[in-house]
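Predict the 3D structure for this chain.
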Amino acid sequence: MTHRGTARKTAALGAAAIMALVHGACAADGVSLQTVVIEGVAYKPAALTVKRGDRVKWINKDPFPHTVTAPGSFGSHSIAAGGTWTHVMRRSGTIAYACTLHPNMNGTLQVQ
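Done. Predicted structure below.
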């Protein structure tokens, strides 16, 4: 293996170790990462229950941009095709959100 190949392998292993530590730290604190996929001009799942402090990550799998906007709670920038946006849920309650570019797209978070 060349020096360059060894360096890439070492970097990949280092990144994997860091991700494992971060995941372990989050799990130890009771914080988790929840995922909502944006696909077919819809949020999937449309309704999700999370805990206060959890991170929710939206992944745009559509070929055009979307937003994730809950007035008074949070608002993403325009999430490009293939892009992501993550938000930490800090308040308990039911949060309705929508895409400002496609108002027929709606989702709900139940934050406990």
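The CA atoms of residues 50 and 111 lie 5 Å apart.
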